[in-house]
Structures are given as structure tokens and as C-alpha cells.
Amino acid sequence: MAVSDVKVLGSWPSPFVMRPRIALHVKSVNYEYIEEILLESKSELLLKSNPVFKKVPVLLHGDKPICESLIIVQYIDEVWSSGPSILPSDPYERANSRFWAAYIDEMWFPALRGVLVAESEDAKMAAIAQVKEGLVLLEEAFGKLSQGKPFFGGDQIGYLDIALGSLLVCLQVIEKFSEMKLLTEARTRCLLEWAHRFSSHVAVKDVMPEADKFAEFAVKLRAKILKARATPE
Amino acid sequence: MAVSDVKVLGSWPSPFVMRPRIALHVKSVNYEYIEEILLESKSELLLKSNPVFKKVPVLLHGDKPICESLIIVQYIDEVWSSGPSILPSDPYERANSRFWAAYIDEMWFPALRGVLVAESEDAKMAAIAQVKEGLVLLEEAFGKLSQGKPFFGGDQIGYLDIALGSLLVCLQVIEKFSEMKLLTEARTRCLLEWAHRFSSHVAVKDVMPEADKFAEFAVKLRAKILKARATPE
């Protein structure tokens, strides 16, 4: 399939867009990246490609749209054998990777987002406590899954590295806003070292948003969410 | 592996528990079913097996716990070849099945649950509208994915059949409470016929809760949720 037959519809401030991009880099697949402007109107191409969720990222493989970041990562892993496997080959390890990725998206990320959009100090501190608790769980999971190797996926970046690593920039912004270190040497040393390795990995570093620029976007996003809350339809 | 090496921790009123059970039936795998009493305290075995979410279902395969209903279904499909494949073999069809299953769990089921726990007529009607809209989307998806065959999975019950079919009993209860037919001949004929086929399938019928008994449970669940809302921690 020609280069232009693989496209990613994305938007730079969406951490979820990093996921398919990193997976394509791991597989050495060339693709065209098409930038959507978030917080503004959505393009015809996005609305046509993902009419149900109307969200980035979307992978276009020829005329076939694939939606939802982790579903796209699995698709990329199944279609391209031009690089290391992203999901482990063992079904139990695969189930564990999927489990922790589900934990991250369903529990941990909502807590992280909760810190950003908290309207009271109590709500903010409760969300921060959840984020910290989650990091301790993920530190334990890293110990079990990496088995002394550099990544959750072992020697290579795998599914769970991509799932969690794509959200590191959000964690940095929350640390900045809350003036608090959440990923610490004392509590989560392995994860802290992993975060440095992940962020400087060749498949990752060029798609990781610059932290200050991302923080500016987060301020705008927060204002938009709080405004929407104050003026329900 | 001996029969007793496969166990399902479940609870009859949890529609999600049906998912691994149906998958095991499709694969003709014998298993021990261990009933948890929901709305009461949780067993040591459940807390030990799923310390993160503390929820049923859990599959115990030997000493390995696998959690989250759809992750378990994928695990069963990957481990046992003693029956038809549950996920399609084509990566794009697999991505589509995963996409609609994600839609069901993230958007459609929360709307269905929203009808049950709505505290105003407006909130209830808004949730019912979302449920109906979702059924129309799923009717369209059925047309595309089943390609004229009896199930989403083609000739056999597949991943999406299990994901949606396990929630049919919830839909029936909501129809009963709202005194409104939601799965109708006029709007969703294919899905209505599919629901009959699915519910009477040999892998399904013995694990589908009896509607009246399930409705009684739903009344208790509703009371518990509304009480928890009224008395926050």
C-alpha cells in the first residue's frame, strides 16, 4: 500500500493522538498526518470518518476509517509486521496489558482530568489523591510486567507503554498547576525512570507535545469546560 | 487443564458476567461458576482476584485471574480453539467489532442506566432518547457487519453479539419501567429479530437472567444508587 494510503487525523494537544502515531513509528510505517483544530469546528473528513464519537484520532487505511486510540493501536499491531509486536504474544500477558490500559483510560485519566477541572480545593485534593494512588498501582504493575526490562513491553515499547506514556504530558501539566511532584523518586522510582526512557525514545520524542505549549492549551480547555458546566444546554 | 481449573466469579444480576460465560459456552469449555452476592459484602476471593476494580466477572484460569468482561472474552477466544472464533479474523472487522463494543459500554449502556436512575421526567426522557438513538446506530451496524447473516459475528455468535446481547435483559427492564417499546419492528427490525435469535441460542439461554427477577433486582439497585446520591460521603 502506498505511503499516502495511511493517514492519521489528529490534533497536537490530544494525548490520545500520540498513541497511533507512536505505534506507526514502532512499525516503521510512513503516514500522512492531518491536523484538526480542536476547540473549533470539526472537519468534514473527521465527521465522515468518525460519525459516532466525532473525535480524533482516526486512522485512515486506504478508505477504511479506524477509530478509538487503543483500538487503532491493536489494528496497527495486527496489520503491520514491519516492527516488533506491540501487544505481548502470550494471551495472559495480553489480557494484563489490556486490563491496565483500561484502568488508565477509565479510572486514572479521569482523575487526572479531575484535577484540571476541579472547582474547589477539596475536589482538587481528592483527585490528586486518586492520581497518586493510581501511580503506585502502576508502579507495582511495572514491576510485574516489565520483569526487570526497560519497558512495560519488555525490551521494546509495547501496548501499555503507549497507553500510559501518551498521558505523561498531561501528568506534567497537572504537576505544574498543582505545584506538586506526583511522579516521585520516593514513591514511584521505576515509573519515573521509565517516563524518562519513554519520552526520549526515538518512536516517541517527535510526537510528544512541548510541555509549556500544552500547558497553555490546558488553561483554555479548563476555561471551556467550566464555562460549559456553568451554562448547561 | 482439568475442569476445576477454570472458574468464573459472577453474580446473576450482573449482565457483564454473562459475557465470559457465553464465550466459554461457545468454546465448549467446562467451568465452575462461583456466585457472589451483589449489593452485600465482597468475598475474599473477589477482592484478591480483582483488587483494582473489585468487580465481577473474574475468570480464574488455574491461579491466573483475568478481569473486565470484554478482556476476558478476548482471552477466552485467544486461549481456546475448541469452538468457533469469537472475534473476526480480519483486522478491520476486528477493529469494527471492538469499536461498537466500546460504543456500547461507554455510551449506550450508561444511557440505559441513566433511564433507571433518572430523578426527573426530563432526565428520563433525555436518556430514553439516547438509548433509542443508539439502537438505530446499532441497527445500521448490524446491517453492515452481519452481511445478511443471523449474527453480528456472521453465522456464529461473535464478540459484538456477546457485548450487546448480554445487555438485552437490561433493555427489557427499561422497556418495562418506562412502559415504552424501545426495540421496535418499525425502527430496528433486524435488531429485534437478532435479539430473539440471540436470547434463544444454546450458548446463551441458560445464563440469561429471568426478566421479572431481574426487574426486582433493578428496583433495589435503583434505590441503593439514589440513596448513595442523597448521602454523599
Automatic annotation (TrEMBL), chains A, B:
InterPro entries: Glutathione-S-Trfase_C-like, Glutathione-S-Trfase_C_sf, Glutathione_S-Trfase, Glutathione_S-Trfase_N, GST_C_Tau, Omega/Tau-like, Thioredoxin-like_sf. It comes from the Eukaryota. GO terms for molecular function: glutathione transferase activity. It catalyses: RX + glutathione = an S-substituted glutathione + a halide anion + H(+). One of its GO terms (biological process) is glutathione metabolic process. It is an enzyme of class 2 (transferase). One of its GO terms (cellular component) is cytosol. This is Glutathione S-transferase. It comes from Theobroma cacao (Cacao).
